[in-house]
Write a structure and sequence with these properties.
The complex is a heterodimer.
Chain A: H1 6-26, H2 31-53, H3 61-78, H4 80-88
Helix pairs in contact in A: 1-2, 2-3
Chain B: H1 9-35, H2 37-45, H3 49-74, H4 78-108, H5 117-146, H6 149-175
Helix pairs in contact in B: 1-2, 1-5, 1-6, 3-4, 3-6, 4-5, 5-6
The chains are: A mainly alpha, B mainly alpha.
């Protein structure tokens, strides 16, 4: 019997990535790089939740691709603001 | 194809609708932020990212308990299943309490729905999500009473969607810009 299952490992990863995002935001580490780290963490968190909480790991590949596409699209759109501010300066 | 997913297929139709709706709201928020960076930077500076982060950890932990409840139900451990769902519900209530406290703090600062574009979208997005949290709590309570594996998978699927939407909303609203 496994002591720590997929859901518990995912929970630990999600908490860690949330703390990393909070520290990155708190340290004032904004701009393209800071936003990139926070948004990449967000995509990894979303994907882990879909795979191990919603159990899409065992589900149809089309649904996995759909949700992954949704996550990446949102993260990319959120990156527009910092990218534009770099271009403006 | 819907039948290959955990829980009732109709729940997945609802989840897909919600994901599309929240997706459009997120893109609207991001594009408006790119067009009005000063308004968004000033608005974001008045938010408390620690409260937002705390609520993320609360909801993630609630989602984890819900996932463990499905495993416990599959192993026919009914008491453990009920306790885990109750824990998920309690944490859902804690999320709502923190959010309401956050709204009250904004109100004391004189910030409301019509303060500026940032706060209109902030209240719209987080308020719409809070309504889903409340609905999710009701659904979890209903499936806990029923306690069949299929109902539990259906109810927790909705709860994980609510969790996922917040995990995406937190960096977008509180951190990135």
């Amino acid at each position: 019997m496994r002591i720590v299952g997929d859901a518990t490992r995912t929970w630990a990863l999600l908490v860690l990535l949330t703390l990393l995002s909070m520290v990155t935001g708190h340290a004032g580490f904004h701009g393209l790089a800071g936003s990139g780290i926070v948004l990449a963490a967000c995509v990894v968190k979303g994907r882990s939740m879909l795979m191990d909480f919603l159990k899409l790991r065992d589900g149809p590949a089309g649904w996995r691709a759909l949700f992954a596409g949704w996550l990446v699209l949102i993260a990319a759109s959120a990156w527009i603001a910092p990218a534009l501010s770099v271009l403006r300066n | 194809m819907l039948s290959d997913l955990p829980g009732h297929p109709m729940m997945w139709v609802l989840i897909l609708t919600e994901i599309v709706t929240f997706g459009l709201l997120f893109i609207t928020f991001a594009v408006t932020g790119a067009v009005h960076p000063e308004v968004f930077a000033a608005g974001r500076a008045q938010l408390d990212p620690t409260l937002g982060g705390m609520n993320t950890i609360i909801l993630i932990t609630s989602g984890w308990l819900a996932a463990l409840a499905v495993e416990a139900c599959a192993a026919e451990r009914r008491r453990r299943t009920r306790l885990l769902v109750a824990g998920a519900i309690l944490l859902g209530c804690a999320f709502a309490a923190v959010k309401i406290a956050e709204y009250a703090a904004k109100r004391r600062m004189g910030i409301g729905l019509e303060t500026d574009m940032f706060f209109t979208l902030y209240f719209l997005l987080t308020g719409f999500h809070l309504m889903h949290v409340v609905l999710g709590i009701v659904i979890l309570a209903a499936v806990a009473l029923d306690a069949s594996l299929e109902s539990l998978k259906t109810g927790t699927a909705f709860w994980h969607m609510v969790d996922l939407v917040w995990v995406v909303m937190f960096p977008l609203v509180y951190l990135v810009g």
